[in-house]
Design brief:
The protein has 7 helices and 18 strands. The protein is of the alpha/beta class. It has a 7-stranded mixed β-sheet, sandwiched between helices.
Length: 335
């Protein structure tokens, strides 16, 4: 009979059942640990090992720096020896309030939430927004600048969406914020490096956050923002982005549409601002600009697209350490 494995967490020694993940064991014993996709993608369930060996599969997809900190994904970890673990320190929980909600084209909400005292974040990171009444929560990326007093989120209005449908009329409602999470944020110590920001749908939110910080920091290298959508209406905030591109010479703006629009919906306003028909991958890899080996890339949106583009940019020459991603995944069901 094989020896049972235990996890020590917040003063308790918990026994794992056969073939049970650390996340499942913690939940079975009543521990409140944040999670979302439960498939090793979203990284919401990151915890830290203080003692014990972490299986390599529990650290797949993490950056080298996260591995060096002994961080791992609780939902992917089936340990073969005892572990002593603690919560990942960045996952604080804060009280906040929805300030206002704006409806944008393309079934998108622009949601502004009070920035709670004590929340230290970077634009482009994401948090879990939790409905105070019943605990329903979803991850949303931060599009606003740190220190602005409010957190700006872009929320896709989904049919029957528990959170998006509620947020539509949630002005002044209390919420909780847990986070921040993620490493999709601007690094100020390389102002001349070319930046590629690419995303679909509301994946624009973290890219806009990165772009705003880069511009505010006086980034000198070229910045190319690619936003993909099925239809023209999905390129929301286009006028705002176009104005930013027009006033900031190093910023170029590219839209890509899967469905051919009315001819009048296509746009070519010089080499630094255009809308074309094609996939986001085609637009990003079309060529031009500095060599890919010099770039830092930020990829956000649908999980499959992000992973595919991540691979193609790596093969084109962008080092993996300089590819930051924030893929969208649907909530995972509980077993």
């Amino acid at each position: 009979m094989s020896q049972r494995v235990h996890v020590c967490f917040e003063g308790a020694r918990l026994e794992l059942s056969p073939d049970e993940t650390v996340l499942e064991a913690l939940e079975r014993h009543g521990a409140n640990v944040p999670s979302f996709c439960r498939r090793g993608v979203c990284q919401v369930c990151l915890v830290k090992a203080e003692r014990g060996r972490v299986p390599p599969e529990a650290q797949q997809g993490l950056k080298d720096g996260q591995r060096r900190q002994s961080l791992f994904l609780a939902c992917s970890c089936k340990p073969t020896e005892d572990l002593e673990i603690v919560r990942h320190g960045s996952a604080g929980r804060f009280e906040a309030r929805v300030e206002r909600v704006e409806e944008l084209p393309g079934q998108v909400l622009r949601v502004f939430v009070t920035a709670p005292p004590g929340l230290v974040h970077e634009a482009g990171q994401y948090v879990q927004l939790e409905r105070a009444s019943d605990g329903v929560k979803r991850p949303y990326s931060i599009a606003s600048l740190p220190g602005s007093g409010t957190l700006e989120f872009h929320v896709a209005l989904l049919p029957g969406g528990l959170m998006s449908g509620w947020l539509r009329s949630a002005a002044r409602a209390p919420v909780f914020i847990r986070g921040p999470f993620g490493e999709c944020f601007y690094l100020p110590d390389e102002p001349e490096r070319p930046l590629c920001l690419a995303g679909t749908g509301t994946g624009l939110a973290p890219l806009l956050g990165v772009l705003r910080v880069a511009v505010a920091a006086g980034h000198q290298g070229p910045i190319r923002l690619f936003h993909g959508s099925v239809q023209r209406v999905g390129l929301y905030l286009w006028d705002e982005l176009r104005a930013l591109s027009s006033s900031t010479p190093q910023v170029s703006l590219f839209g890509s549409l899967l469905e051919p629009p009315e001819p009048s919906a296509l746009e070519v306003a010089g080499e630094r601002c255009r809308i074309d028909v094609g996939t986001l991958e085609e637009a990003v890899l079309a060529g031009g600009g500095p060599p890919w080996s010099e770039h830092r890339a930020y990829l956000c949106g649908h999980h499959d697209l992000v992973r595919k583009l991540q691979k193609k940019l790596y093969l084109a020459g962008v080092p993996l350490a300089r590819i930051h991603s924030d893929p969208f995944v649907a909530p995972g069901g509980r077993p």
